[in-house]
Amino acid sequence: MARFKRILLKLSGESLMGEQQYGIDQQRLADYAEQIRDAVNMGVQVGIVIGGGNIFRGLSGASKGFDRVKGDQMGMLATVINSLALQSALKSYGVRSKVLTAIRMEPVGEFYSKDKAIDTLENGEVAIFSAGTGNPYFTTDTGSSLRGIEIEADVMMKGTRVDGIYTADPEKDPNAVKFDKISFDEVYQRGLKVLDLTATAMCKENNLPIIVFNMDVKGNLNKVLSGENIGTYVHS
Fold it and tell me: What is the fold of 6-235?
């Protein structure tokens, strides 16, 4: 039995690069699709938000002279590209999915609405939410928290390349200590970079817990869904 009935899975665009410097690593994409298929087969309703940092990041573009609004719009389009790639990979594993976009762009994807998203999930399809919130100055973390709250998910699961939340960056500090559980307040007080502040506040105010785990280790998603104590649980 799965621990959760409905989840919002946040995937990193950067992780899609695999060992590459840019773009989409086909093996990493296939690994993700296979794990998502297994989650669906467990009876879990899966909504997904995927970042676009493997293609373009609005903030980094702004630092190089791009207009921030235009840069963020380019970042939104990057998430659509990744969403279409994931949809294609899921199809190859026999998983039905629907790409819902925060900006109208039929026939690339259907325009997002809460009712459409929940109908998709209840029909056993994966709902892939792309183009962020449709607004500049909001990250895909905030898009994830918004969609997770809207679809009434039991939990937001943030798949990263590290196995949870640490007192410091474990890739830089060998003495960093991992948290098994941590409150939103402590995340804020310690200044930990779990989500951006807007997303963290939204999750706290709407009682949407977060599990941060390493999605790049194949099988980890299903371990979390089965109740294994991996990753870090963030709670109110």
Answer: Carbamate kinase (3.40.1160)
